[in-house]
Structure formats: structure tokens, C-alpha cells
Design brief:
mainly alpha; MetI-like fold; 2 strands; 72% helix; globular; MetI-like_sf; transport; transmembrane; membrane
Length: 526
């Protein structure tokens, strides 16, 4: 961040604010900012409109196949943005099932694709809160004569306010900092701030303009998160929660519209794009069934815009993701252990809160900004005798920083749930900090560490924004290769890109679902 400030506002060691009128005086800058707010705002509204009914159906009702539907909603969240963009391109682009609708490279396509992973985010966040919400007040309103809809609107909806506000802020953050989806589906016509930073840096080498835009983006995201946090804290004071229900209530006839909406969402927004992606990856340009696109991954034609084979890129991605996940899980455990402590003094508690905000900084800073910052600062840092920007060392570091907040947020609730009395008892028996770590903290983390590792590995494997700045020719990762194939004009390039996107999606979803299954099985043991 300091390097971005220096690049944008310092010239020759002196403060220079000339970059501000240059950037914000351009008509395109304001058009891009407006498109960013419009895309993120509409995608957030759509995600809430579809996610809240899904939260009710999947967390308040009990029916056969519920866990399968929950899994279907989980998969879009862990899919790389490149895969999501390619899936909607396969659905809405030329030759796609809905290609005649004219939505390819359109604003509507971007909004739909941004909502694709975030409906599940809303359903999980709101549903987990809703499952623990005390419904006594709603039942009392019904007894006093309120209809079911009116009771929900005047009692339950305000109580859900904190969870909805938190989910809306997170979804807006994800949508406003989306890179791969907007790059593939929006192009230059519907660019957002993320893709504009990339364009200024890579195409025009305008580092000052990119730095000013990065700082402006960070300020917008920080303001949105601060407002949401304030609303969430204000609403939580009046909410009564209870232990989560083991099972929901059976669906009734009045629940049919909600279940129909949830089914239509899963079918049209989630299943249809992924089905189009897989189907088109198995067809050639004449529509005949073939495995040629997958064969091109191992033996690519010379016209393809890649160095080496896609299989080599897959191997490189897996190696880099493994290193990044290891870095993220080690740092995440250490940070979670520190943040889980409950200091007795107000000053220490505020210090922990400030440190928590610092740890979450990569979540508020876009991946493109993170990659741009590393590109600016890693020229022989700390006296190292070579330029780190010329190697792949920075890629796992960047990917680990992107995954770190998710790892900490997965581990932290488990550590904060450990009773203080347990540690006090161990301390009174003579156990030191290391002994308590070995006998209390690490065993209770249990399978949650596996889930955090899965998050880190899947996130690193599909990371595209920061990696696109740091990758070098001949050392491309799979998301970068897929984006290059999709955007190239060679006849075989698009089909190979579709096949690569399928492979990338299967790898990330498989890793995440295995980690989720491990966590679920482990819950029975603790």
C-alpha cells in the first residue's frame, strides 16, 4: 500500500498530486467507476433476492436431497472466476445454447455471472444465522392475528438484518473486485476498476494512473465494509439466538413458491452454465462429439498462444498452490492463535481488533491491487541480490496472501469457542503455553484445519488477478492459460480453453468438496 501511495502521489521524493486530475479528469475513469458500482450493486441485489429464499429452504426446512442442494450451492463459490466467466461465455456466446439471446459481452451477462457464486454465500451466511434465530416473537405475532407474510416482514426480516447486511457487504466486495469474470465477459466496453487497473498497467504502462485508481478502489471498499460493520453491530444487540436446530420443519404447501424459486435458481443460474461448459468442451466447431479439445491439452497445436502444454501448466499450478496453501495454513494458524486470545485490558483488546483488521486487509484489497503492489515493491527487497519479479517466487506468496483471510476465518471460531476455564485449569496444573497449544488448541482444531487447508489450496489453484501480474512466459498457471486460450483467435484455441476450464473447475471443486466432507465426517468425532 505504501508503494502504491508513493507511485501515485510522490515524484522525485516530493509530494505530487498531479495524478489525481489526470485520472479523475478522464471521462473513462468515471464510466468505469460507475460500471463497477452498477455491476456490483445489481449483482448484490440479485444474490440477496435469490439467496435469502435459498437460506430459508436449506436451513429452515427438512426434505430429501437437501444436502445435495447445499453441495450444489457450495461448488460455485470455490470455482475460479476464470471458470465462471468461461462457463457463461459457453452458454451465452456464439454457438452456445442461449447464444441467440444476444447477451454475449453484455452488462447483463456480467451481472448474472457475478451472482453465480454469491447466491451460495448469501444462503450460507443468512441461513446459518436464521437456523439459530429464536422464532418465539414470530409465533406470537401469528397468534395475535398477523398473517405469515406480515409476521415475517415485521419480525423475522428485521432480526435477519445483521446477517443480511454482513452478507451484502461481503458480496458487494467480491463483485466490485471481480477480475476474471469481468475481463472475459465484459471486455473493455463493460470494464470495472479491477480490469482498468490491469489495462493501465499491462497495455499502457501507466503505473501512476493504476496506482491512483487502486488507492481509490481501496477507499471505496473500506468505506463499504465500515458502514456494514456498523449496521451489523447495531442490529445484533437486539437479536436473540439459540442453539442451531438439528433438523428443520417439513415443507408445507405454502412453501412451494420458495422451493420452486430455489429449484429454478439452481437449474438456470448454476447447472445450465456448467452443463454448457462441459458439453461444448466435448464438441468441435461443427458440433460433433470429440475429445480433441482435451487432447490439445497434452499436445497443443502450434497456433495456440501458450508456452509448453496445458498439462505442464496444470502441474505448475498444483505445485504453486501446494506451496501457497502451506504458507497460508502455517501463517493462518499462528494468526488465529493470537487473535483468539481474550485480553483483560481494553487497550489490549483494541490492539487485537486492530491486528484482526490488518490480517483481513487482503480480503479488502483486490487481488489485482495486491499483484500490482508486489510488482512495485519486489525489486531486490531487503537487500536481496536479485529481482524477485523475474522469478515465480512471488506467485505462491501472492496466492497465500489472498487465501490467508479465509484460513483465519475458518480457524478462528473454533479457537474462540474453547472455554477460557479449560486453559485456566491447564495453567493451574503447570502447563505452559506450548503444552496448552499441543494438548488443547491443536487437537480441538481437528478437521477444521483440513477445511482451511482445502480453502487455501482451492483458492490458490484458481487465483487469477494477482497471478496475471506476476506470471512469466513459460511458467504460466492454468487460470492464466485458460484466459489466454479463450481470448485468442486461433480456431482450436477456444475449444482447448473450454477443456482447460473444465479441468480447472474439477480440480478446485474436488479439493473443496473433499475438505468439506472431511470436516463433516470429523464433526462426528469431536
Amino acid at each position: 500500500m505504501f508503494s502504491l501511495v508513493a507511485t501515485g502521489f510522490v515524484d522525485g521524493g516530493r509530494l505530487d498530486l498531479s495524478g489525481l486530475p489526470e485520472v479523475f479528469g478522464a471521462e473513462r475513469t468515471w464510466r468505469v467507476i460507475g460500471q463497477t458500482f452498477a455491476q456490483a450493486g445489481l449483482a448484490t441485489a440479485l444474490s440477496l433476492a435469490l439467496g435469502v429464499p435459498a437460506a430459508y429452504a436449506l436451513y429452515r426446512l427438512d426434505f430429501r436431497g437437501k444436502r445435495v442442494l447445499q453441495g450444489v450451492l457450495t461448488v460455485p463459490f470455490v470455482l475460479p472466476s476464470v471458470v465462471v466467466g468461461v462457463a457463461f461465455s459457453a452458454l451465452l456466446g456464439p454457438g452456445g445454447p442461449l447464444g441467440s439471446w444476444g447477451l454475449d459481452q453484455s452488462f447483463a451477462a456480467v451481472v448474472l455471472a457475478l451472482a453465480f457464486p454469491n447466491v451460495g454465500v448469501v444462503a450460507r451466511m443468512v441461513g446459518g444465522f436464521w437456523a439459530r434465530l429464536d422464532d418465539t416473537s414470530e409465533q406470537a405475532a401469528r397468534v395475535l392475528g398477523a398473517s405469515r407474510v406480515r409476521a415475517w416482514c415485521i419480525v423475522t426480516l428485521p432480526a435477519l438484518g445483521p446477517a443480511i447486511a454482513s452478507a451484502a457487504a461481503l458480496v458487494f466486495l467480491f463483485c466490485s473486485t471481480s477480475f476474471g469474470i469481468v475481463l472475459i465477459l465484459g471486455g473493455t466496453a463493460f470494464a470495472n476498476v479491477e480490469t482498468e487497473i490491469y489495462r493501465l498497467t499491462v497495455q499502457f504502462l501507466d503505473l501512476r494512473g493504476a496506482a491512483v485508481l487502486s488507492i481509490a478502489q481501496f477507499a471505496i471498499v473500506a468505506a463499504a465494509l465500515a458502514v456494514s460493520a456498523q449496521l451489523r453491530r447495531a442490529g445484533e444487540r437486539a437479536v436473540v439466538l439459540r442453539e442451531e436446530r438439528g433438523r428443520g420443519t417439513p415443507p408445507r404447501r405454502v412453501d412451494a413458491p420458495v422451493l420452486t424459486l430455489v429449484g429454478a435458481t439452481l437449474l438456470l443460474l448454476h447447472v445450465l452454465p456448467l452443463t454448457a461448459l462441459v458439453t461444448r468442451s466435448l464438441r468441435d466447431r461443427e458440433g460433433r462429439w470429440t475429445l480433441a479439445n482435451y487432447a490439445a491439452l497434452a499436445d497443443p497445436p502450434e497456433a495456440l498462444p501458450i508456452d509448453g502444454t496445458v498439462l505442464e501448466a496444470i502441474g505448475a499450478s498444483l505445485r504453486i498452490a501446494a506451496v501457497a496453501a502451506l504458507i497460508a495454513i502455517v501463517l493462518g494458524m499462528l494468526l488465529a492463535l493470537v487473535l483468539s486470545r481474550r485480553p483483560r485490558t481494553r487497550s489490549l483488546r483494541r490492539g487485537i481488533e486492530a491486528f484482526d483488521a490488518l490480517v483481513m486487509l487482503p480480503l479488502g484489497v483486490s487481488a489485482v491491487t495486491l499483484g500490482f503492489g508486489l510488482l512495485l515493491t519486489m525489486n531486490r527487497p531487503l537487500g536481496i541480490g536479485f529481482d524477485l519479479r523475474t522469478s515465480t517466487v512471488l506467485i505462491p506468496i501472492a496466492q497465500a496472501l489472498v487465501a490467508l483471510p479465509l484460513v483465519v476465518r475458518t480457524l478462528l471460531p473454533v479457537l474462540r469457542g474453547i472455554p477460557t476455564e479449560l486453559r485456566d485449569a491447564a495453567s493451574s496444573l503447570g502447563a505452559g503455553p506450548l503444552a496448552m497449544l499441543r494438548t488443547i488448541d491443536l487437537p480441538l482444531l481437528g478437521r477444521s484445519a483440513g477445511l482451511a487447508l482445502g480453502f487455501a489450496c482451492a483458492t490458490s489453484l484458481g487465483e487469477f488477478g494477482a497471478t496475471s501480474f506476476l506470471v512469466r512466459p513459460g511458467e504460466q498457471t492454468l487460470p492464466v492459460v485458460v484466459a489466454a486460450l479463450i481470448g485468442h483467435q486461433a480456431p482450436e484455441s477456444y475449444g482447448a480453453g473450454l477443456a482447460g476450464a473444465v479441468v480447472l473447475g474439477v480440480l478446485t471443486a474436488g479439493i473443496m468438496l473433499a475438505a468439506e466432507r472431511w470436516r463433516t465426517d470429523g464433526n462426528r468425532e469431536f
